[in-house]
């Protein structure tokens, strides 16, 4: 193998398909290179990590060690202490596993482009995982411009690679569903890696303080505005535990009751998916096996994980305006929101009032407190939360910006493709027109009466009270 195309060819022979691989830097291999380098960024795990698998296959062919490099970037756009504390757990666990497998492990603190450029000088070739939102994509592009060796990006964190699922932006779940259904089975296999390659341990370099979580994090000079979410520890083992608990106790109720905030049927896996601590494929396979063993229906969960989630990636991949309001919206939603922009608002809250859960509505406040204290909002309440921000803010544009701000600041699963499509959905993305109303126009309406009619919410409010350690929830 002498260049980027040979590397690609080798991966194709090893079972990858063309949609799994993108050559970001087309050039010759460094024949003096001492190792193959894998830049781990979005996929912080050893198990079912296609990028790791590809890098190890190339190292095997070149008879070189594999070195994995992870860069903590304290200035990560929008990242704060909460996100780093969760991410740390995953990177720590996985770095130990990778070293046990004989790979060199480098942990750096800086900017990925600078660090990877330095590390690439001794490398034969570089492999990276996939980043879908803008900053992650631009680092990969920038890195490709800076280095002198081949750079291959491997599709990770999706079941079906985004370009294999569809070659265009999809209008809604129903337009993507069929395309995914036709493909998904061929992608439902766990990817392993080669560990019988030359030992890479002599390249390992890890900061001395890395084993001591809080000392290490405190030295990073992070944005400390949001504290650690104590209900969630990160990492593959924690993700696997959540999955097992979900399968044993909740998935069978999920089909009928997933929306009910009192019953707490959801999996809570989104933070782990966001940081790549577990692969969606592993979850899908486990869920499928469980459903056939126990003979239970998993249609709704399957649809959320394999269609709705993959639709979000399709959205941010093909629509470069995914974070620009109102450009990312379909025309009908743009028009109707513009027509109703100046409708009188009965409530018009400031950012501070929203952020401190000080609205008149105890349900909305509870959702916001859940976000602040737990780092995640229950599925149905998250929709209510987003819809009410639209209703109680001066303009739809301000509501969009505010929703993103709050979601991405406090949610452990924030800054994800799902964040943009979830919030976008509140404004009509991936939805259809409904009966026209004030403020909402033809976008879907949600109201408190509906919420109270459907659910009791007593247990939900109790739970949030407990989490937020308050005697009374504000509002009402
Ligand atoms: C206003 C708003 C903001 C949102 N922000 C985010 C966000 O920042 N990050 C995030 O991951 N999700 C977001 N979502 C989508 C959804 O609410 C979460 O994915 C879900 O609540 C995560 O909890 P869970 O893992 O317990 O979900 P489960 O119900 O157990 O579902 C399992 C997995 O399926 C996927 N999934 C479930 N519901 C959806 C959905 N509606 N769209 C896409 N994928 C879905 C997720 O990956 C989830 O982890 C948002 C939705 C709304 C309405």
Could you name the CATH class of the largest domain? Alpha Beta
The whole-angstrom Rg is 23 Å
The count of DSSP E runs of length 2 or more, i.e. the number of strands, is 6
Low-confidence runs:
none
What integer is the average pLDDT?
A: 97
The general outline is: globular
Largest sheet: 6 strands, mixed
Q: Looking at CATH, which topology of the largest domain would you report?
A: Rossmann fold
Roughly what percent helix? 40-55%
Mind telling me which CATH architecture of the largest domain this is?
A: 3-Layer(aba) Sandwich
Structural class: alpha/beta
Order of helices and strands: HEEHEHEHEHEHHHHHHHHHHHHHHHH
Q: Helical segment tally?
A: 21
Layout of secondary structure:
Elements: H1 4-13, E1 21-25, E2 35-40, H2 50-62, E3 66-72, H3 81-100, E4 104-109, H4 112-120, E5 123-128, H5 134-146, E6 151-154, H6 162-165, H7 173-187, H8 213-218, H9 236-249, H10 251-257, H11 270-274, H12 280-294, H13 299-318, H14 331-339, H15 351-355, H16 362-374, H17 379-391, H18 396-410, H19 417-426, H20 448-454, H21 458-468
Parallel strand pairs: 2-3, 2-5, 3-4, 5-6
Antiparallel strand pairs: 1-6
Bound molecules: flavin-adenine dinucleotide.
């Amino acid at each position: 193998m002498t260049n980027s195309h040979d590397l690609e060819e080798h991966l194709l022979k090893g079972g990858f398909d063309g949609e799994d691989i993108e050559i970001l830097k087309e050039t010759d291999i460094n024949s003096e290179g001492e190792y193959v380098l894998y830049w781990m960024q979005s996929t912080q795990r050893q198990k079912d990590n296609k990028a790791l698998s590809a890098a190890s296959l190339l190292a095997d062919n070149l008879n070189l060690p594999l070195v994995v490099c992870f860069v903590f970037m304290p200035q990560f756009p929008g990242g704060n202490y909460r996100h780093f504390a969760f991410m740390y757990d995953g990177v720590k666990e996985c770095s130990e596993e990778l070293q046990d497998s004989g790979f060199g492990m480098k942990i750096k603190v800086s900017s990925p482009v600078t660090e990877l450029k330095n590390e690439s000088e001794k490398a034969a070739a570089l492999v990276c995982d996939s980043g879908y939102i803008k900053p992650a994509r631009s680092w990969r592009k920038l890195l490709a411009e800076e280095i002198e060796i081949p750079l291959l990006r491997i599709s990770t964190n999706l079941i079906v690679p985004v370009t294999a699922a569809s070659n265009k932006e999809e209008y809604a779940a129903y337009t993507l569903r069929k395309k995914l259904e036709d493909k998904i089975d061929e992608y439902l296999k766990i990817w392993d890696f080669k560990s019988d390659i030359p030992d890479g341990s002599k390249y390992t370099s890890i900061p001395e303080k890395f084993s001591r979580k809080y000392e290490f994090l405190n030295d990073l000079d992070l944005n400390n505005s949001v504290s650690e979410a104590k209900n969630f520890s990160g990492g593959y083992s924690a993700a696997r535990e959540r999955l097992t608990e979900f399968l044993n106790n909740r998935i069978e109720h999920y089909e009928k009751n997933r929306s009910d905030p009192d019953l707490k049927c959801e999996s809570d896996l989104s933070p782990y998916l966001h940081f790549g601590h577990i692969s969606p494929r592993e979850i899908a396979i486990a869920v499928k096996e469980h459903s056939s063993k126990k003979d239970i229906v998993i249609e709704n969960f399957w649809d959320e994980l394999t269609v709705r989630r993959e639709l979000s990636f399709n959205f941010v991949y093909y629509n470069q305006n995914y974070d620009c309001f109102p450009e990312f919206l379909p025309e009908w939603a743009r028009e109707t929101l513009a027509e109703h922009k100046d409708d009188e608002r009965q409530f018009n809250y400031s950012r501070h009032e929203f952020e401190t859960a000080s609205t008149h509505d105890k349900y909305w406040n509870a959702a916001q407190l859940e976000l602040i204290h737990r780092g995640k909002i229950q599925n149905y309440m998250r929709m209510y939360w987003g819809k009410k921000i639209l209703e109680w803010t001066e303009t739809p544009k301000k509501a969009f910006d505010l929703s993103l701000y709050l979601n991405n600041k406090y949610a452990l699963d924030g800054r994800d493709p799902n964040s943009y499509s979830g919030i976008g959905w509140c404004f009509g993305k991936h939805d259809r027109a409904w009966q026209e109303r004030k403020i909402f126009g033809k976008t879907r309406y949600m109201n408190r009466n509906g919420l109270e009619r459907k659910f009791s919410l007593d247990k939900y409010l109790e739970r949030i009270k407990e989490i937020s350690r308050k005697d009374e929830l504000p509002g009402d």
